[in-house]
Specification:
Keywords: ATP-binding, Nucleotide-binding, Transport. This is ABC transporter ATP-binding protein. Belongs to the ABC transporter superfamily. The protein has helices spanning 49-56, 78-87, 95-98, 105-115, 128-138, 157-169, 187-204, 215-221, 239-244, 249-256, 290-293, 296-299, 303-308, 326-338; strands spanning 6-16, 22-27, 31-33, 38-42, 64-69, 72-73, 88-91, 175-179, 207-212, 224-229, 232-238, 322-323. Helix content is 36%, strand content 19%. The chain has 14 helices and twelve strands. Helix 4 crosses helix 5 and helix 6 packs parallel to helix 7. The strands form two sheets. It has a seven-stranded mixed beta sheet with strand order 7-8-9-4-10-11-12, sandwiched between helices. Strands 1, 2, 3, 5 and 6 form a five-stranded antiparallel beta sheet that branches. By secondary structure, the protein is α/β, with parallel strands linked by helices. The protein has a domain at 248-338.
């Protein structure tokens, strides 16, 4: 596939609460993913990263904005979504819950082929058995035939996660969406699964979207990072640039507790992500912003803007490092003028 694999522009997703209020799970989000690229969506629980991933897969229809797969907008008809499912596959974070305990490994991997009517051959023209065996081998489960008749409870956590990945690979997708792919695994197994995802990217040219709360994981696997807060991307760019020189106070706080960043003083954010039915005015992060709380924003003359002036939606610029922060913008402008 040439050009961009997946693009979201100004995506807004809303849910009605029982009280009749409208919660904006996504409040304008732009992201872009190229073929063979690994993009990490990072943020706390409630930041909107999983909703964005579901929206990119067509599982949620945006109230505004557009999602494009390749050069076409998503088709939300039954036929259109069925076609999309063959090209975009999701790997869930809980393999024990995602695998049917009554299905053998073979049936779990073959399920997608059967749903899409590919029992007589996959997109490469192989038989079902050949496709299942090849998918298990690609996921690092060899010899595959030894696992065909085993059940999920007979496997280790790492093996179950590999079976989920094999089920996705059987469909020969263009994009793999991994939602917290190693959060339920032991530390000794996490590196193996991350290495597998990178290997699949290299060998098959897959685009990979990783949803995670762990910036350390993103640092190890992603080409680009998009940091989300309260339904918006607040900072994004090449991983090395974003994580070696974070500009947004929220990114700085997330990064400060990553073990690999010993040079940073840990920042403990106060409170929790606000209710999406009551998004704060101005910068949506300002009620929890350390730079506002310690007087840094006031000293720079942007405290009033932080509290009262809304920031625009960040563009999905795959080549640049962009940030939605009054203080970071001011510092950046000062650096440019001095140079």
């Amino acid at each position: 596939m040439s050009g961009e694999l997946l693009t979201a522009t100004g995506v807004r997703v809303e849910f009605a609460t029982r009280g009749g209020q409208v919660a904006r799970a996504l409040d304008g989000a732009d992201v872009q993913l190229s073929p063979g690229e690994v993009l990490a969506l990072v943020g706390e629980s409630g930041s909107g990263k999983t909703t964005l991933a579901r929206t990119l897969m067509g599982l949620e229809k945006p109230a505004a904005g557009e999602v494009r797969f390749g050069d076409r907008p998503l088709d939300y008809s039954v036929k259109g979504l069925r076609h999309l499912r063959r090209r975009v596959q999701m790997v869930l974070q809980d393999p024990a819950g995602a695998l049917n305990p009554r299905h053998t490994v073979y049936d779990s991997v073959a399920e997608g082929l059967r749903i899409h009517g590919l029992v007589d051959g996959d997109p490469q023209g192989r038989s079902e058995t050949e496709t299942v065996a090849a998918a298990l081998s690609s996921a690092g489960l060899r010899p595959p035939e030894a696992l065909f008749l085993r059940y999920p409870h007979e496997l280790s956590g790492g093996q179950r996660q590999r079976v989920l990945i094999a089920g996705a690979l059987a469909m020969a997708p263009d994009l793999l969406v991994a939602d917290e792919p190693v959060s339920s695994l032991d530390a000794s197994i996490r590196g193996e699964i991350l290495a597998l995802l990178l290997k699949l990217r290299e060998e098959l040219g897959l685009g990979v979207l990783v949803v995670t709360h762990d910036l350390g994981l993103a640092w190890n696997i992603a080409d680009r990072v998009a940091v989300m807060y309260l339904g918006r991307v607040v900072e994004q760019g090449p991983t090395e640039e974003v994580l070696s020189d974070p500009q947004h106070p929220y990114t700085q706080a997330l990064l400060s507790v990553v073990p690999e960043t010993e040079r940073m003083e840990p920042v403990v954010l106060k409170g929790e992500i606000p209710d999406p039915t009551r998004i704060p005015g101005g910068c949506r992060f300002h009620p929890r912003c350390p730079a506002l709380a310690d007087g840094t924003a006031a000293a720079a003359g942007v405290a009033d803007a932080c509290r009262g002036t809304a920031l625009p939606v960040l563009p999905a610029d795959p080549a640049g490092h962009v940030v939605a922060c009054h203080l970071a913008t001011l510092v950046g402008q000062a650096g440019e003028s001095s140079s």
